[in-house]
Structure formats: structure tokens, C-alpha cells
Amino acid sequence: MKKNNSFVRDCLSFAFLLILSLALGSCSSDKSGDLRELFNSIPSDVSFVGVIDSEELLKQSGFKVKKGSIVPGKETEKFFAENTDKKLEFLYDLICDGGVEPSCMALFTEGYNSYLTGFLSDTDKFKDLVESHFREKTAATGEFSTCGNIAFTSNRFWCCLTSRNTINIDNIRHFSTLSEKQSFISAGISDELMKSDKIMRGWGDIKGCLNASGMEFSTKASLQMGLEALFEDAVEFIWNMDIDKDELEIDLNLLNSKGGIAAFLYPASKAESDQIKAADISGDAVLMLAVSPKFTDRMKKDTRGKGMSVIGMISGMISDVSGTVMVAADNADNISGVIPVKGNNTSGLNQLLSQYGFSVTQDNGAMRFTKGTCSGKITSDVTASVLKDKMAGLIISPDSLTQGKIDYAAFMLSTDKGGMKMSIEVKAKDHESLMIGLLRAYLTKNALNGN
Fold it and tell me: Using an 8 Å Cβ cutoff, are 249 and 423 in contact?
């Protein structure tokens, strides 16, 4: 299998294909029984597992599920009719008439490969569709058939998401013959995933996921070192995704080796709404970071006596920073920002900003820096409503990617039970606009990448 050398492109493609792959069918009444069967065919040594409640996802994505039939809403049907992307055509056919059983599905990563697996209700329909999509006949090996990157039996399918047109039938056969002790059902986290009512939820091993990511060794090592510096014994993570009409939310927490929340080792602050609004800046993207003197003191302490250190230099420059730092940028490369300070030790920071071409002023306990005249859809009021009480956050307006279907996407860090919760929030006009906006972003990204 040929590897993609761009980690960022791989992550974006995998993440979006993962979301698209969810909407293949609706969940039956016996979700726990279906998930148990799926978990019994997932190896216990996987590095990532995800669970999908596809019935609810379909409803929140502009589809109507009635007595086993799946019908798109008007806006959703119009979107698919107007676009000729082959992957979207295949997805639409799978959703509406692809022979996929109205049941739950699972995603998992074993080694360097990731799979989507679920149930079939009409094998002949499924076989005809995949043969048409991949323009090849299925090959049968015993009870298993393969076509492109898909393998299937009379009532199950597996899709190798990390390959465009291949799947190893020996791997699939191995998954199907696992004992209970060899399968993921033996993992303690499996009970929690089966009981959860989130549209998506999952678990991952940090080191295993980094190894499967295709990153350069130096990048993986740097990330691992960063996690070790910021968290105590962070080895796993759990995550949830939910959709409520016009809003998609993803939460992720890091766990320690005992299954508890991995403690965040640095003093954490929370941004206050008034401080965010007082910055009075707007842009197409706004970054926020709440900084306390205790945080910078800890940085200086941890880097003291370690020779030349970039973090040590930065901690010295920001030693007088105290409050909510705000930076905004727009699509014309204009930038503006506000850095609250409590003392006069700002010459190093002032010099650094000037070297990068910023105009810097200081007044009323704050340094303001600008390059051009920055403006955009994300105002201070919007930022305050989304990022208040968070330690850090980035909020962007993806108009150019989604044609106005999505209002904003926010990435946030906040304290939670002694650890740090990472969150993503995507806000749209309504539930159909949310999924269509994501689909438009997918198409635009592919066009920019020349795919």
C-alpha cells in the first residue's frame, strides 16, 4: 500500500471520510447486541476503536428513516444531485439503496490499517454497487468476497479506510475467528462504549495512534515529549461526538495507565468573557490563550539550568503577561492582537513583535500589535460566547470552504477533573446545513489538493 507523505492531508482525509462513513445505515433496536458482535471481531491489541449510532446521525444529517427506508431531505438530495464527486455518489447510493443493514457500525485501527465494519441486509445489492464503483468483479475466497478495498460475507462488510483499492483477506479472516479473550470485548472500556448514547464515541492508545499516523519519527518524539511534560502518565484517550440539530460537538480526554483522567501538570487559567470583549478585535480566525503568572513561573522553573531553550526564552519574554491573550487574522493576511501585561518587563516581547513587522503600542496594561487592518466575521462577542471559561481556543469562519453553510468551527482546551479536555464545536444554520457544509468543505479541500 502506498503511503501518503502529507500527514496533515492524511489526517483531514481520514477524519472526513470517517464522518462520511458513519451515515451508511440506521441502528436497530438491539444496539448493544450488535456492538457486542462487532467488538467480538475486533482484536484486543488495536490502537483505536470508534462506535457509530448511524440512525441518529442520519436524522441529524438531513435524512429521514422510516420503516427501514432511508430518504434524503430536499436540501440534502439537491446537494448530492448537483455534485458529481464519485465518492459522494457512492456514499449516496450506499445510504439510500446499498443493502447495508440498519444497524450500528465500528471503526478500528490495527497496526497501520484502519477499518470500518458493519452488517448487510441485502448482499446482492451491496455486491452490485461495489462492483460498479470499483469497476471490477468480486473475487471469492471461501465465505469471503473482496472488491476494491471492501470485503464482505453474507451479512457483514469490512472497508479498509487506509487503502483505496486493496484489502487483505487473511486479516479479515483473522478478525472473524477471534476468541472472546483475543477480542476487544475483553477490554474494560468496551462496556462504557456500548452503554454510551453519543452518536459517536471511542477510545485510543496514544502511542499506537501516533505510530499509525505516518508521522516522521522526530515529530512523533516531539509530541510524546510534549505530552510527558504537560500531563502525568497520559497513555490513552476517550472521545465522544454528538450532533444536536445545528451543532456538532467532539470532546476528548486523556487517561492515565489506571484509566483515570491524566493530570495536567501546569497551573491553568480561564478566560473571562469581559476580558475577551475588551480586546475588541475581529477576524476570520481568532486565537485565545488565558495566561497566569503561575504558568510562566512554572515554565521558567522547568527550563532553568537546561542551557539554551526556546521555551525558556519565551518564558522570559512573557514573564509579565497576565490575562487573556487575543490574536485575530483575516483572509487578507492582516493580523491584530492584544497581550495583557502587569509590569514593565516587555522590551523582549516588544522587540520580537517589531522584528516580525508588527506595529506595537502599549496602554492601560495591554500591548496591542497590528499588521494591516484586520476584520472578519468572528467578533469579540462571538468569541466571548464560545471561548469563555476556556484556557485556550481557536475559532474560525469557514465561509470559503462551506459557502456560508457553517457559521464557525471552534477548537478549545478547558480544565476538567484535574486534567485538560479538548473540544471541537461546529455551528451551522440547521442540521442539514451542518452536514452539507462539511461535505462542501470536503469537496473544496479535494479541489485545492488537485484530487
Answer: yes
pLDDT of residue 12: 39
Q: What angle, rounded to 10 degrees, do the helices at 293-303 and 310-317 form?
A: 150
Beta bridge partners of 413: 392, 422
Note whether 325 and 278 are within 8 A (CB): no
Distance of CA 253 to the CA centre of its chain: 13
Measured distance CA(223)–CA(220) in Å, rounded = 5
Exposed/middle/buried for 16, CB within 10 Å: 0-12, 13-18, 19+? middle
With cell 484509566, the residue in question is: 259
Give yes or no for residue 9 having a pLDDT over 60: no
Question: What per-residue confidence (pLDDT) applies to 2?
Answer: 39
| Rounded alpha-carbon distances, angstroms, from residue 98 to 70, 119, 134 | 10, 11, 14
Alpha-carbon distance 39 to 217, whole Å? 31
DSSP string, 164-215: SS---HHHHHHHHT--TTTBGGGSTHHHHHHH--SSEEEEEEHHHHHHHTT-
User: What are the b/e assignments for 134-143, b being 16+ CB within 10 Å?
Assistant: beeebeeeee
Encode 417-447: b = buried (16+ Cβ within 10 Å), e = exposed.
eebbbbbebbbbeebbbbbbbbbbbbbeeee
pLDDT in tens, 108-126: 999 999 999 999 989 999 9
Instruction: Show the cell assigned to 393.
Output: 481556543
Cell numbers 465465505 correspond to 143
Sign of CA dihedral 202, 203, 207, 211: negative
Type of residue found at 418: G
Output DSSP code: residue 379.
Answer: -
Contacts of 347 (CB under 8 A, 6+ apart): none
| Amino acid, single-letter form, for residue 318 | I
Closest to 441 (Cα-Cα) out of 393, 395, 408, 394 = 408
The set of cell numbers assigned to 279 is 480586546
Say how far apart CA 319 and CA 296 lie, in whole Å.
Answer: 6
State residue 25's pLDDT score: 35
Residues 113-159 have pLDDT tens digits of 999 999 998 999 999 999 998 999 999 989 999 999 999 999 999 99
Average pLDDT over residues 192-198: 90
**Hey, which residues does 409 pair with through a beta bridge?**
396, 426
| N residues, the chain | 451
CA distance 305 to 292: 23
Residue found by looking up cell 457500525 in the block: 105
* Residues 32-46 pLDDT 10s: 678 899 999 999 999
Answer with the residue of higher pLDDT: 65 or 256.
256
* Residue partners of 439: CB distance under 8 A and separation at least 6: 20, 79, 83, 88
- Pair 370, 397: CB distance under 8 Å: no
